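We treat protein structure as text, and this decision shapes the records that our systems exchange. This encoding replaces a full spatial description with a residue-level series of whole-number codes. Below, we set out a record of this kind in full and without editing:
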Amino acid sequence: MFFHPMDFLIIIAFLLSLWAQFRVKGTFNKYANVPASSGMSGAEAARRMLDANGLTSVPVEHIPGTLTDHYDPLSRVVRLSDPVYFGNSISSLSVACHEVGHAIQHKVSYPMLVARHRIFPVVNLVSGVAPLLLLAGFFFKMTGLLLIGIIFFSAAVAFQLITLPVEFNASSRAKKLMVQMGFIRNTEEREASKVLGAAALTYVAAALISVLELAKYIMIFRGSDED
């Protein structure tokens, strides 16, 4: 039997994930229309924050798209999307500084970021194999394959859980430095928190879905093992 009572919880979590994605886009668009008091663009804010933290060698590059912003730890580059790189809004500065927060984490070897970097090659290898092993275990009723699939899937879940403190810490660093360096005023901190909080919610929802799926697989395995 492939339908499990926990599927209801997974469906709810999936709907939460869709809502989180809708919210992050809505929040970003809302505060993209609110200019920051400093008048700086996201690119300028990112550059200043990097330089102030001794990261003068880390470039800020423009990439096409919307909400495609990220910090590349391999190339050590902060990449900002169109509205963030060129925009001077609360949203633009919040997202740009969040990505710089990851660069700062990299510099100071923030433990959870280090752990995520170390586990990534393993996750990248096993995440594609795990679904195949799980399906094979279900269809052929081979508990051994099912167990290996669960172990591999657990690595992917661990990666998502480790990502949560990494994202929250980057946002915390960003918000603190944005105020200290005068990119935003204290009165604008609440709006910046909303932008950063909405983005973090997407990671929370994704982690919740993965945890519930893992719990489902473990329960199925225990049931088949008892049979």
User: Anything to note?
Assistant: Residues 7-226 form one domain. Residues 143-180 form the longest helix (38 residues). The mean pLDDT is 91. Helices lie at 7-31, 42-52, 82-86, 90-108, 111-126, 130-140, 143-180, 189-226.
